[in-house]
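W.,

You were right to be curious about this one. When I first looked at the sequence I had no strong expectations either way, so I just let the prediction run and decided to look at it fresh. Below is the sequence, 384 residues in total, followed by the output.
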Amino acid sequence: MVSNECEIKVSRVTRKILLYSLIWPKEGEEINPGKWYYIRIFTFLSFTSLWCIAICMHFIIVLKDKINWDVTEETAIIIAIYGTYYMVLAYVRNQKKAARILRDLSNFEKFGVPPGFEEEERRLKNYIIVVFIHAFITITFYNFYKLSQKNACERFNEEHDLHENCGLLSPVWIPFKVDHFPQFQLVFLYLFTCCHLLMKLPLIVSYNALEMVHHIILRINHLKIMLTTCFDEPDYHICRRKLRQCILYHIEILEFATRVDDCFSNCMFAHLTLTGAICACLEKQIVSGISTFGAILHFIGWILALFIGCLGGQHFINASDTIPESIWASKWYNVDVRLRRDLILMMMRSQRDLNITAGPFGVVSYALFVSVLKMSYSILCVLT
């Protein structure tokens, strides 16, 4: 194991994005973050909580005064905000575990660099850049789309004798008028900043899990190559030494899988429990024709975040299933019976899938993705 936290060589871009989002420590402090890291977390929560309070107050006032205002949009946003808070706090709680996993995934002293490591790291870096640009453009477009609806919202206010704040990201209660310069521009900028800080985090956290999974899959593929050539030599002692390396490598991979599951299980649980409800509210908003385009953008964002997490989980399961095939493809039939016994034990241990769980409620995979979509449709039927 590498003792120096500066030796983390993977997920560089993802760590920078999380750093700029205030939920990852500075480079060199990732294993043992100092007090300033927790001050940044507190600042992040305090700054964005004002938006959460303002939208919750608006929701309560609408329900209490029975105002003629559809609350579907703000219900989806409230669930999204609290769901993001849950994911962020779960991730921050396991930040040291995540940093140690990334550090150990950067260490190749025992078994060498897996074939294709540089290409995979470059590919993952390009994908996170695309994901980040997509999130940035979508969030920015969503904010300015709401701004473009300001005049229509003001006409609706006049027709129904309402006093809603128009042109903002979401309905909010503010104890002062924000119709004119500079109040409106300052509030718009605040909500714009909060949205960028918060709403991309479920996507980035899910992608961070996918990155770790793919680096473990690199090791699985490396192990498969070692297993296939393990018994090419006729000498018993050489075969024994190679098989011992394969067994140790397999144990390390199993440990990585357990650690990644422990690190991200609670975050995936948030996806399972909250994404269905959020998507149902957005589907209701689309069906009702209320800010349809904005609802579609919001819907795509959460579906993409869930899909990235499920994609990594499914790839993990598929890769783990191929280990017994590599054992079978080796020249096991030519070796001593003592080595065959060890090989049988390794094959038995390989029968258990490597996966990421969504808390106690299931395994992150394509099946979970479909289940969440079904759940959102069921909730939509209840709402309509």
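Here's what jumped out at me. Confidence is low (pLDDT under 50) at residues 1-6. And, maybe more interesting for your project: The CA atoms of residues 73 and 334 lie 66 Å apart.

Coffee later to discuss?

I.
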